[in-house]
């Protein structure tokens, strides 16, 4: 069963319309398993780094959310005023985290949260824009020595993508807001234009330099200033970018650039210790939209194959940075933070596509227990055998009929992709034996006809067959 | 850090009040781990039986919920009307399940859902009544031969409590609505009083027979009728209850009782096949409040020690039954269902209490990497060692300072309950060695001073120490 999206069945006679709210979806079956696999992989990585999971209420007091999202505040879902407190559904996981820190007077924490957030936006289901969707945030809050938590976040990103089997395909672009701002100063961008020019630069991954230059000129820069920015921001690489910046006297003399350079020098030492420098690309065009980043910024990108053409495009599947001024907003003390948000919906879509490409079949049940040629259906016997399998941790099912027909049982097992059939016959049982059969074998395969085994060796023999013929195991499900 | 409950910090100057909404709570740290352990144990059992997890949107169209909860409809949380669809937060998991089946025209499914539900009730946090809380529902929907899914639910309950370490303490009371209704008929209870007398009988686990009898008489029964009911409903046991009922001619002749008896005879055969008859108590006083049960009903109970006295009381931690008429409510076809709802909040509280009783310490980090006596703090070296541990799946942390002091590092490790310290010293590193130390050992213990190991054997040696001295492992966290 695959997850239905806002499927509706209208009823002309004024009966209840059976649908789920616009912009929401349901998760069930293999999609739910794959989704949980993504969540579990990420959680495992976070836990390995000593992080604690956090679960906050789905709604917050309205005043907690008020004034935090600017223009986008209109997208907040309010609860109806039914007396008592005025509440609204959470819009992201950052504001609840900030509220949590201030409320409990927590000065430092490594926390993660994987949870649904709500935005009353115009949904575009095909493009993945939903009104209810998952966010996965990992953040390190607290005063620490420079770049230590920052480099750990990058390490966590690499571990996460490795865990998801995407390690080969993902590059993490990094940059530093201070370097970028300093470069704009050096080039002569007026202070009040820096954020707007920054957002033009951020488009260099999707637009040509000529187009970006045009946008900058429209925004009020001269062609010379734009060209100088271009000479910096088209540079990317590794540690050599540090040398590139230091080799330019005017750049190297800028105080803001210097601050950023000091951070990045440290960072590269730490990336070496973590053996991940090769996964990271220092990209001076990376600017990130959000205003609240103050120091390092990063974005993990992956090449996506288009479904309709042979073109590939670059997709962002995780992003973040250091934001030292945001999380103290409720408390008296500023709490510096660095964090990353994984685009779990996009990661899910990529993995789903790959699984389909590779024709991977997930099995949710290991063994199907059947009766053959018995007048009484051997129900109690099938139950007892299933019980033995369950006790051994083997996922097992049987037909929920007293006297099922054999073809029906085979059909049920095969359509569910169950690899092993345990077949009970009266004569065999009388001799203390059972037949095990691997399903889906080609004709002529030596195991095609199955094998008789001692009933006492049931579990051991089923495990052996699963080992040999079980195919790709079900994703660890939880 | 333990989870705060509606903690508030009022601010006289009219600043934002930092609290979470009334009747909600947050989960973090060891409590969150224990909660996830409960969820994962239950999910594992459901998956072993071939069930599929389902995740539905947190809000439904208001009309889907309308008219489903009678009096309690006033407890539904509505979303504000901000234009577009009118929605409300889900009140339980049953109505969304019914809507899911009808919307997707699903005729049979084994599904489970563990999710938050919302009730605008007067919260009583101390007694565990919350406005946002978890439900865990497992249901088998579909037309099957009698008592096959029903007995599997009972088996699942036993497996779940075993998995949670409560197998020895839990008894599952069972009864059958048809038997109960038939007994009332035989005793002469008028048809329109059956539900109300049924609810009086259900109190026999908390009240004496005299009190229940008094209530029945107040509800309009004669003392004789009440006494006859008493003679039936005070009976409990195993298969012998079937014999008890059959031995009474008037009871055995009642058509409604007969239907129930046939079911229960079948059930006992199946319980034997599943080897769980000893965990089940056939209790003729079990009635269950909800009107919608049509056949078998059950309730898992556990003896709870009172915190304040030596008294014990009986708590219900899971309950359910067959409800054949409820889930078809949106569709054209009736879909018979049998299911169970686990009281996950109460289970969590019991396990938490036990863990405290047993002074079990959970560890969330396996190893703490420290520097000793080195002028430069050996930061990059600590990072490289942590990286090796992470690569081996070992949960590791280190002090996020460039030059931490040794006592601070020990304090951080010990207060977090980390069992193993990996200590780096310049001289030892020069010889390719590291010191491993088990934390929290008593004076005089042969391992107290730690051991020097080859740096190349780091992972292997740490694993060995964790094996020997790691204490109780962290609960599997996800």
TrEMBL record, chains A, B:
Keyword Ubl conjugation: no
UniProtKB keywords: Aminoacyl-tRNA synthetase, ATP-binding, Cytoplasm, Ligase, Nucleotide-binding, Protein biosynthesis
SUPFAM superfamilies: Class II aaRS ABD-related, Class II aaRS and biotin synthetases
GO cellular component terms, semicolon-separated: cytosol; mitochondrion
Record's subcellular location: Cytoplasm
EC number of this enzyme: 6.1.1.21
Protein name (database record): Histidine--tRNA ligase, mitochondrial
NCBIfam families the UniProt entry points to: hisS
UniProt function note: Catalyzes the aminoacylation of histidyl-tRNA in both the cytoplasm and the mitochondrion.
Molecular-function GO terms, alphabetical: ATP binding; histidine-tRNA ligase activity; RNA binding
Assigned protein family: Belongs to the class-II aminoacyl-tRNA synthetase family.
Top-level EC class as recorded in UniProt: ligase
Residues binding L-histidine: 92-94, 119, 135, 139, 288, 292-293
CDD domains: HisRS-like_core (cd00773), HisRS_anticodon (cd00859)
Catalytic activity: tRNA(His) + L-histidine + ATP = L-histidyl-tRNA(His) + AMP + diphosphate + H(+)
Domain Aminoacyl-transfer RNA synthetases class-II family profile: 112-351
Biological process, per Gene Ontology: histidyl-tRNA aminoacylation; mitochondrial translation
